[in-house]
Amino acid sequence: NNLSTLGSMLTIMFIFMFLYSIIELIMSKRKIIFIIKSNNNEWKNNWPIQKHSNIELNFMFNKN
């Protein structure tokens, strides 16, 4: 009996985390599009600094 309630609680928590991760993914995609629009100089040069852009993306992901 105790195990079944634990399993149902675990599945409910998993569903909540799944929905939350989907929402975070959508919001971060919007933020990434905003970064690309604001960072127009790097895309015009056609050689963006890879490390710099990765640090920016990690910062935006961590800011949530």
TrEMBL record:
Keywords: Membrane, Mitochondrion, Transmembrane, Transmembrane helix
TM region positions: 6-27
InterPro entries: Cyt_c_oxase-like_su1_sf
Name of the featured protein: Cytochrome oxidase subunit I
Source organism: Aspidiotus nerii (oleander scale)
